[in-house]
Amino acid sequence: MQLFNLLVVVVVASAQNINNGGSSNFTNVGTNSTTNTTYSNPIMTLNVGDPWMTRYQSNGEGWYLFTYSTNDNVTLKRSQSLTDDWDHAEERVVFNPDPDSGLPYATDLWAPEIHNISGTWYIIFSATPDHDAPPPLQDAMCPFECPAVNHRMFVLQGDGPDPWTSNFTMKGMLNTFDQFAIDGTYFQYNDQLYHIYSCWENTYSAWPANLCITQLSDPWTVVSNLTDRRMISVPNEPWEQVPYGRAGRLATNEGPEQLVNPTTGQNFVLYSAARVNTPFYCIGMLELVGNDPMQYQSWKKHTDGCVFHQNTQAGVYGTGHASYTTSPDGSEEYIVYHALTTPNPPCKDLS
Ligand SMILES: *[C@@H]1O[C@H](CO)[C@@H](O)[C@H](O)[C@H]1NC(C)=O
Ligand SMILES: *[C@@H]1O[C@H](CO)[C@@H](O)[C@H](O)[C@H]1NC(C)=O
Ligand SMILES: *[C@@H]1O[C@H](CO)[C@@H](O)[C@H](O)[C@H]1NC(C)=O
Ligand SMILES: *[C@@H]1O[C@H](CO)[C@@H](O)[C@H](O)[C@H]1NC(C)=O
Ligand SMILES: *[C@@H]1O[C@H](CO)[C@@H](O)[C@H](O)[C@H]1NC(C)=O
Ligand SMILES: *[C@@H]1O[C@H](CO)[C@@H](O)[C@H](O)[C@H]1NC(C)=O
Ligand SMILES: *[C@@H]1O[C@H](CO)[C@@H](O)[C@H](O)[C@H]1NC(C)=O
């Protein structure tokens, strides 16, 4: 979920190095020749959330491609170095809706992701027509306030192989049965495509926010009906609930991302747990342990707690909504996440 005025930074960290064959070449990830340090954090200080980093090739050169929540539009940034100064990296606005149009994707654009699916580029993001200010009668339907009740998922399609020169056009809304949907991502398994997103159980349940899965026939067409939609994770562990251990209001699972172990082929969904604007926002993990992602029994939650969380000594709090990438040569794994620089961010509504 998007957050603002919370002193958010985007941070990169070395994830588990899956190839332990001693092939690391840190020159490739931005060693500072004066200090010999590999990189310095944060890599972005623009006070934005939901970082998404991926890679693409153009004319034989490798690029990092980045997007994040601007709230108003979909903006891409790129650099050849993961550890570049991303505040000033070159950027391109690829989708800029009129906020007063009343279109279902007009306002509060959150958590865009750009995916290369079989050579075509798709941008998936959530947005709402109403600045997260639903009419009072609709707002009153929820047990607590529900500003994001009209957030839905949308898909843009690029018209060329190179994401930096492609133009993106609206392909449509991903069917979430006219229910709350944010932070959607693609999950690919056995040549099938799925949509995993943060959902409510019912139209007006508000909290908890869970993870739902539906099956797609192409990147913009959902083939599951509501009966077949599955909730594959609910925030039922104490560390997914803030205040700690309180089920219901503000208990949250969101920001799901697929991560595949290239050595073992294991499929994981890393997701953000707990409340976004608190120091306890962290990353939890599901593993696909069955063959059918559409069965909730196929998913096993790592119940021992967050797999990635705040570090009070380092002054990094609320670590969440991550994406995953590699060094240019593919030998090193990196996590790119947002974090708070204070455990007590100023009070702010999330609209
Ligand atoms: C590391 O990569 C850099 C840049 O590609 C290259 O110049 C250097 O020779 C490499 N070093 C080693 C030890 O492979
Ligand atoms: C390398 O580190 C030094 C000392 O912190 C700093 O002055 C310099 O700007 C850094 N160089 C780069 C390319 O980041
Ligand atoms: C950086 O590493 C090089 C090669 O190992 C070494 O010669 C140099 O003294 C180091 N510099 C610093 C500032 O540690
Ligand atoms: C997109 O992915 C395909 C593989 O599906 C790959 O061949 C192609 O190089 C990728 N496009 C870019 C621009 O990196
Ligand atoms: C896109 O949104 C950002 C953040 O609000 C803003 O700085 C930028 O001017 C916008 N770009 C366009 C073309 O509207
Ligand atoms: C994208 O649109 C611009 C402006 O309409 C146009 O100049 C450009 O050729 C288009 N790019 C592609 C790849 O079609
Ligand atoms: C949902 O789709 C399944 C097939 O996947 C079908 O068996 C079922 O009848 C459908 N349910 C409804 C309510 O349409």
From TrEMBL:
The keyword Signal applies. GO terms for molecular function: hydrolase activity, hydrolyzing O-glycosyl compounds. Residues 1-15 form the signal peptide. One of its GO terms (biological process) is carbohydrate metabolic process. Pfam families: Glyco_hydro_43. InterPro entries: Glyco_hydro_43 (IPR006710), Glyco_hydro_beta-prop_sf (IPR023296). Transmembrane segments: none annotated. Belongs to the glycosyl hydrolase 43 family. This is Alpha-N-arabinofuranosidase 2. It comes from Phialocephala subalpina.
